Amino acid sequence: MNYRHAYHAGNFADVVKHVALVAILLHLRKKDKAFRVIDTHAGAGLYDLGGDAATRTGEAAEGIAKLSDLTGASFPLALSTYLDIVRNTGPGRYPGSPLIAAQLLRATDKLMAIEKHPEEEGALASALAPFKNAKAVAADGYARLAALLPPPERRGLVLIDPPFEAEDEFAMIAEALASARKRFATGVYLIWYPIKSQAASDALAGEIRAGGPQDVARITIDIGRDAKADKDRLSAAGLLIVNPPFGFVEEMRAAAEVLALRLGRPDRGPARIAVTGPG
Fold first, then answer.
1. Could you tell me how many helices (H) and strands (E) the chain has, helices first?
2. Are 214 and 243 in contact (CB under 8 A)?
3. Where are the domains of the chain?
4. What angle do CA 196, 124, 223 make, to 5 degrees?
5. Distance CA 248, CA 216 (A)
6. Alpha helices, H only, 93-235
7. Residue 236 — φ and ψ, nearest 5°?
8. Rounded-to-integer distance, Cα 23 and Cα 248, Å
9. Any idea which residues carry the catalytic annotation?
10. For residue 222, what are the β-bridge partners?
């Protein structure tokens, strides 16, 4: 299955992934020292939820559309900040990870967003054009990553969110991450993956945990689709966070309490969102 961002923009997995992204970036902003964000598979950056790709799957209806009426400051900061960014993007549009990150950078912080598909890289460059400290790069994210580490700032986040076009994508993620951690052991790494096989996702988590002494948090979300009726649609996804910030797990658990109720289905109850790892 292909998980190119345009087809799945704003779905349930995007919502959880982007709340986690915001939580990490807000933590990095707490210190005055600059940081860098590297997005290895950035996509187009901005998506039209009424466009052909998004309407073909209709997945935003099971994701961001269910949060449209959430307002107020009583939610965890990462969730409320994410919702503000989405609303400010405009009706019918959804910001991808690089555009969300760009809006949370300070003047001294930088973003390098990598995309290998020429058409999407061109759209990405346009989406990031208003942000002077954000740069779109046409390249293979896996091949380019090691050369970018450690970043000059010695602080930052690496987001690995590939489209899973290759059958050995899990192995490619593990190899890229192992190489990256040798160069930038203190960095925060956020890895997204679809869960089509529990055994495969558990193996990835195990391999990453075995790769070093760093802390690893894990988030899984399952919206409980019928395995037979919806066999070709994504129903579960996961995140692995290497070196999660202090307090990240607690904040994501608080956000999960809100999101589980909204992202579930009336006929199946709340979504199952599990957040485990160090505090």
1. 10, 10
2. yes
3. 5-276
4. 25
5. 11
6. 97-104, 118-128, 141-145, 169-183, 198-209
7. -150, 150
8. 7
9. 161
10. 236, 272
For domain 5-276, which CATH number applies: 3.40.50.2000, 3.40.50.720, 3.40.50.150, 3.20.20.100?
A: 3.40.50.150
Q: Does pTM top 0.90 for this prediction?
A: yes
List phi, psi (to 5°) of 8.
Answer: -125, 15
d(CA 211, CA 141): 20
pLDDT in tens, the chain (279 residues): 555 788 889 999 999 999 999 999 999 999 999 999 999 999 999 999 999 988 988 899 999 999 988 876 688 999 999 999 999 999 999 999 999 999 999 999 999 999 999 999 999 999 999 999 999 999 999 999 999 999 999 999 999 999 888 888 999 999 999 999 999 999 999 999 999 888 888 888 888 887 775 699 999 999 986 655 556 678 899 999 999 999 999 999 999 999 999 998 877 789 999 999 986
Contact of 195 with 225, CB cutoff 8 Å = no
Phi-psi map region of 10: left, alpha, beta (phi>0 left; psi -120 to 50 alpha): left
Distance between CA atoms of residues 114 and 209, nearest Å: 26
Whether 94 contacts 7, CB under 8 Å: no
Q: Is 67 helix (H, G, I), strand (E, B) or coil?
A: helix
Q: What angle do CA 210, 211, 213 make, to 5 degrees?
A: 80
